[in-house]
Amino acid sequence: MSDKKIIFFDIDGTLLDDDKKMPLTAKKAVFALKEQGHEVAIATGRAPFMFKDIREQLEIDSYVSFNGQYVVLRGEVVDTNPLNREALQAMTDLALTHNHALVYMDHLDMKANIPNDELVEKSVQTLKAKISVGYDPLYFHGRDIYQTLLMCTAEEEPYYEAVFKAFDFVRWHPSSVDVVPHAGSKAKGIREITSRLGIADENQYAFGDGLNDVEMLTTIHNSVAMGNGCDEAKAAAKMVTKRADEDGILYGLQKLGLLS
């Protein structure tokens, strides 16, 4: 096992504040970690094409995307975990009867099965990622889909959870829930990277803020929840730092002794 350390950062609410801006201290902290010889990676629910600019800005080429379903180590795809196609077809059919739109996402693009759906536009706009959602109701035919966005309320979500055991549902917006393969998670994707690099558990670190970070924050040896994080994330983490917009990344790294 190597003595090298690896630090995983979530994006929304962690590297980026609520206004989707990256504090300068966070950017400088990432480069400082790399200068010390540590590995720095991203662990996000976003699709790869939704944070290409952030990877380029931070010069990061290792990441866990789609909440663990598409894993890249130093520019090379090392693990993929697509959604079950039969179950996805069945969920599509059921969702249409309730007029609930779906957005199918692979590593290259995202397409909705209902054109110009208001909830799709509203939820995706909150990411401020300069992306548009095209229309292709058959986009999931014949290709691997790693995550789907289902437009439904929190009250409607349990209905889908009860029917589709092949999937896990993780809410990220009042109108939208991430649909990923059952038991797929950021934690699983992280294990793909750390095992290949031979990095010991005690040298693994993770920062996050949301419901989709809970398993990562629970399992990673040195886990940090952002001060702006949800209660579940804070309860799961070993430590809570300041808010993202209060230099929470830098403060957390200093508390961990990784930066001075």
Radius of gyration: 18 Å
Apparent shape: globular
Can you write the helix and strand succession as a string? EHEHEEEHEEHEEHEEHEHEHEH
- Count the beta strands: 14
- Can you give the mean pLDDT? 95
Strands across the major sheet, in which order? 5-4-3-2-1-12-13-14
Counted by DSSP, the helix tally is 9
pLDDT < 50 stretches = none
Name the helicity range. Answer: 25-40%
What percentage of the residues does DSSP assign to strands (E)? 15-25%
Q: What profile does the largest beta sheet have?
A: 8 strands, mixed
In angstroms, what separates the terminal alpha carbons?
25 Å
Class derived from helix and strand content: alpha/beta
Organism: Paenibacillus jamilae
Protein name: Phosphatase
Give an overview of the whole structure.
This is Phosphatase. The chain contains nine helices and 14 strands. It has helices at residues 24-35, 52-58, 85-97, 118-125, 157-163, 186-197, 214-219, 231-236, 248-256, and strands at residues 6-9, 39-43, 63-65, 70-73, 76-80, 102-105, 110-112, 134-135, 147-151, 167-173, 176-181, 204-208, 222-225, 239-240. The strands form two sheets. An eight-stranded mixed sheet has the order 5-4-3-2-1-12-13-14, with helices on both faces. It has a six-stranded mixed sheet with strand order 8-7-6-9-11-10. A hairpin with a 4-residue loop joins β3 and β4.
